[in-house]
Amino acid sequence: MFTNVAYLHNSLNDMVDTSKSLVVTSCGYYRVHSRPVVSTERPTGRRDYQLLYIAKGKGHFYFDGLQGKETIITEGNMILFRPGEIQFYYYYAPEKTEVYWVHFTGRMVEGILDNYEIPNNKNVFYTGNSPDYAWLYRQIIQELQLCRQNYEELIAITLRHIFIMINRYIKEGKKTGSDIQNEIDRATHYFNENYNKPLNIDEYAESRHMSTCWFIRSFKQILKVTPMQYILSLRMANAQSLLETTEYNISEIAEAVGYDNALYFSRLFHKHVGVSPSEYRKMKSGR
Q: 79 and 130 in contact (C-beta within 8 Å)?
């Protein structure tokens, strides 16, 4: 089993803090692959709130206690426990579960959850399996571990970011379908990480077992641009940043954002931005 956990002020106790609107008290990650079972048993619950995210595998939950019905929660779902709610849940090694969790408190928690339309009549809700969720949880863990300047404020903002993503998914997922939303979220994450490499939409769609036509149509339905238009916008935005903040020549910038041919890059840049890369740099430098 692999764990990565962090606690506010190194305190393992659950706490209630009404001095601020939202306070993150702990956050962690479990990857269950060797230990036979990882169990949590809290017959009287906790005094704070907990939000869990099943990133892979599944969890076995008993919301009415061990005498009640078992509920198997699969990846892409979040589980919210409010103060005082019974908590019995288990992860088993053969299922190779990966789960993130965060505990929080504050004087305005219910109002914040209501503002982002987090369901208040059920513990479990599907939010999709966007890689961004895991990244946000990891950011909270890191900030709690490093305790840098203003970290308590930052982790509260990051938790709100998670709430915003849940709200966005609940609203957009109903319109587009959860499977489509998941695929487009995954695609945009991949393109953001790899925009400066050769990208082939046919090959990407095939790697995700989708038809190219379906992928392009679904991508445009949600983001209002085609995948290649999206990739182009990423390349041009980053080229603009490099022109403004570095002394790299045009060929170096072209290569940095994914183009071997500097002349071709310059033509695309002019078409997209309205001026050549050289003119853009002069405009931004004031020379």
A: no
**Helix H segments across 109-259?**
109-115, 131-146, 151-176, 178-194, 201-207, 212-223, 227-245, 250-256
Q: What is the dihedral of CA 188, 201, 77, 92, to 10 degrees?
A: -120
CA–CA distance from 284 to each of 243, 267, 281 (Å)? 8, 19, 5
Q: CA torsion 73→25→170→4, rounded to 10°?
A: -50
Strands 23-31 and 98-105, bridge-based pairing = antiparallel
Dmax over Cα atoms in the chain, in whole Å?
75
Give me the domains of the chain, ranges plus CATH numbers: 2-174 (2.60.120.280), 177-287 (1.10.10.60)
Q: How far apart are CA 176 and CA 150, in angstroms?
A: 38
pLDDT in tens, 210-254: 999 999 999 998 889 999 999 999 999 999 999 999 999 999 999
